[in-house]
């Protein structure tokens, strides 16, 4: 049936456009406060590619991944 094909094609197109929109609106790590492009690149090397992944893993797990990849990564307390 021709109408069914048109309807299914429209659903497919709508889903593809929604996925593309979601992919383009993904927050970049470097856009967070105190985050540089360099740190974004280092996090990407350990599989943390966007803000969502950072939030899901949490700060401690992200730091542990960085530390495992590079033993020169250290913890520095901020003094107030």
Automatic annotation (TrEMBL):
Pfam families documented for this protein: TfoX_C
InterPro entries xrefs: TfoX-like (IPR047525), TfoX_C (IPR007077)
TfoX C-terminal domain: residues covered: 26-74
Protein name per UniProt: Protein sxy
Gene source species: human gut metagenome
